[in-house]
Write a structure and sequence with these properties.
Shape: globular
Structural class: alpha/beta
Mean pLDDT: 90
Order of helices and strands: HEHEHEHEHEHHEHEE
Distance between the termini: 49 Å
Length: about 260
C-alpha cells in the first residue's frame, strides 16, 4: 500500500498543477504551457472524454498530462479530484481556477433590470461558488507545497472602478451577471490572499485579455497562447512575487 510520502517521491521533484476547464481554449493552453515547463498537469474537464482527447494532445508533446473529470459545480467531482491528486502526487503546487461561463447573449445589448434570474444564479454557481469550493478542497494539498500558487481567472470586466468610470475601455460593456460574478471572484482573491498572507501560498486574479475562445468570440485580438501568458506567470511566481493582486501581462489592473 502506497503512502503520501511514496506519492510525493513519485513526482520526482516535479511540480504539480491543476487547471479547471482545461480541455479547450485558455485552459488547454495554460495546462500545455505549464506542462512544457515540466509540471505534471491535471486536465480538469466536465466531459471526461474531451479531457482525454486534450490530454493525449499534450502527451504527444511529452507532457505528463492526467485527466480529471471535474464539473466544478459538482461537489462529488471536486472531492474525487482532490482525492486523486492526493493519492497520486500528495501535493499541489498550482491551482488555476480557469473554468467559467457567460450567459449573456450579446456583448453590447443587455438590460440589467431584465436580468434572467436563472442565468444569474448559474453564472454565480460556476464563476464564484465553484471556485470557492474547488479552492477549499485543494488547499490542504497546496499547503504541502513549498510555494503554492492560486490563480483565479477573472476579467477586466470585473473591475468596479473601470465599470464606473465614463470613457474607460469597459464602461459601455454592462454584462451584469458576468461582470458582477468576476467582481465577486476578485473579492475572493483579496480575502483569501489576506488569510494566507503569512504562508507561502500566493493568490491572484488574472485578466487573460480578450481572447479568441468560445466565450471571447472570433473578433478577439488575442489567441489562446497569448492569453494564457498571464495565468502561467501567476501560477509560477517566484518567492518575492505579489499576492492579492489583479494582473494582466505583468501589470496591475484597478479593482
Amino acid at each position: 500500500m502506497s503512502t503520501p510520502q511514496d506519492a510525493i517521491a513519485g513526482t520526482e521533484g516535479r511540480k504539480v498543477a491543476l487547471v479547471s476547464g482545461a480541455n479547450k481554449g485558455l485552459g488547454f493552453e495554460t495546462a500545455r504551457q505549464l506542462g512544457r515547463m515540466g509540471y505534471i498537469v491535471y486536465v480538469g474537464s466536465r466531459d471526461a472524454m474531451k479531457g482525454e482527447i486534450a490530454a493525449r494532445r499534450m502527451r504527444a508533446e511529452g507532457i505528463d498530462a492526467r485527466v480529471l473529470k471535474l464539473d466544478v459545480t459538482k461537489q462529488s467531482d471536486i472531492d474525487a479530484a482532490a482525492k486523486k491528486i492526493g493519492a497520486e502526487c500528495g501535493v499541489l503546487d498550482a491551482l488555476v481556477n480557469n473554468a467559467g461561463v457567460m450567459h449573456e447573449k450579446s456583448w453590447t445589448v443587455n438590460s440589467t433590470s431584465a436580468t434572467d434570474m436563472t442565468s444569474l444564479r448559474a453564472t454565480y454557481e460556476a464563476n464564484v461558488f465553484a471556485v470557492v469550493a474547488v479552492t477549499q478542497a485543494m488547499l490542504p494539498l497546496l499547503r504541502k507545497s513549498a510555494a503554492g500558487r492560486i490563480v483565479n481567472v477573472s476579467s477586466i470586466l470585473g473591475s468596479v472602478s473601470l465599470q464606473a468610470t465614463p470613457g474607460s475601455p469597459t464602461y459601455a460593456t454592462k454584462l451584469f451577471a458576468y461582470n458582477s460574478s468576476k467582481a465577486a471572484l476578485n473579492m475572493f482573491t483579496i480575502s483569501l490572499a489576506h488569510e494566507l498572507r503569512n504562508t507561502k501560498i500566493k493568490v491572484n486574479s488574472a485578466h487573460p485579455g480578450w481572447v479568441k475562445t468560445d466565450l471571447g468570440g472570433d473578433a478577439a485580438p488575442l489567441n489562446a497562447e497569448a492569453g494564457a501568458k498571464t495565468e502561467v506567470e501567476l501560477a509560477t511566481l517566484p518567492e518575492d512575487g505579489p499576492t492579492g493582486g489583479f494582473f494582466h501581462d505583468g501589470k496591475p489592473i484597478a479593482w
